[in-house]
Amino acid sequence: MADLVLETGRLVLRTIEESDAALQFRVLNSPIVMEHLGGVKELHEIEAKHAKSMSSFARDGFGFMMMIEKASGALVGHAGLKKVDHPAAPNQGDFEIGWLVREDRWRRGYAGEAMRAVIDWAFTRHDAPVLVALTAERNVPSWRLMEKLGMERRPDLDFDDPAFPPDDNPTIQYSLTREQWENSK
Fold first, then answer.
1. What is this structure's pTM?
2. H helices then E strands: how many in the chain?
3. Burial, 17: exposed, middle or buried (Cβ in 10 Å; 0-12, 13-18, 19+)?
4. Quick one: DSSP state of residue 155?
5. At 68, is the secondary structure helix, strand, or coil?
6. Which residues form the N-acetyltransferase domain (predicted)?
7. Which residues, 6 or more positions from 155, have their beta carbon under 8 angstroms from its beta carbon?
8. H or E stretch covering 178
């Protein structure tokens, strides 16, 4: 059974359950939503990511969560905290935040609302010294949100992801230190 982890004004962020892979496959796995994330995934790929997140929660007490809209009870995305684990990333092991929102809920502020809660959780509950977020340079809405969250561009952390098309390379990173976060409060 899923556990409630974080709650905002409009959202509940809960742990992932095994049955959530099929739900994510149906609701979030569209070409436009997955455009900058390597494209639409097969169900077994989503199941593997969910298993990884469930394992992270069991081991570290954090991971990615399902983002549920309180008003409707609908899955609107996923968001969370993990360790950078891409083999090409120069900062493996750093705390990484991330999000994904279904297309019919874009431009409603859900990603920002969820990520502010995740950032607070990362710094206060998990003692993260710095957070990073990864995206493609052409994914303008993503890095603009990173900037709104107080994150700064870190070109020194860029890397190429061979699984992504040339248009989505390099992977770029933004960061937010604990001190920057504390000074923004």
1. 0.93
2. 5, 8
3. middle
4. G
5. strand
6. 11-179
7. 172
8. helix 178-183
The answer to whether residue 149 sits within a structural domain is no
pLDDT along the chain (185 residues), means of 10: 89 94 89 83 92 93 96 95 95 96 94 97 97 94 96 97 89 97 89
Residue 4 makes CB contacts below 8 A (sequence gap 6+) with 12, 13, 14
- 94: CATH: 3.40.630.30
CB 29 within 8 A of CB 46: yes
168 within domain boundaries:
no
Cβ-Cβ contacts under 8 Å for 143 (sequence gap 6 or more): 135, 137, 153, 172, 174
For the chain, helix, strand, coil in percent to 5 are 35, 25, 40
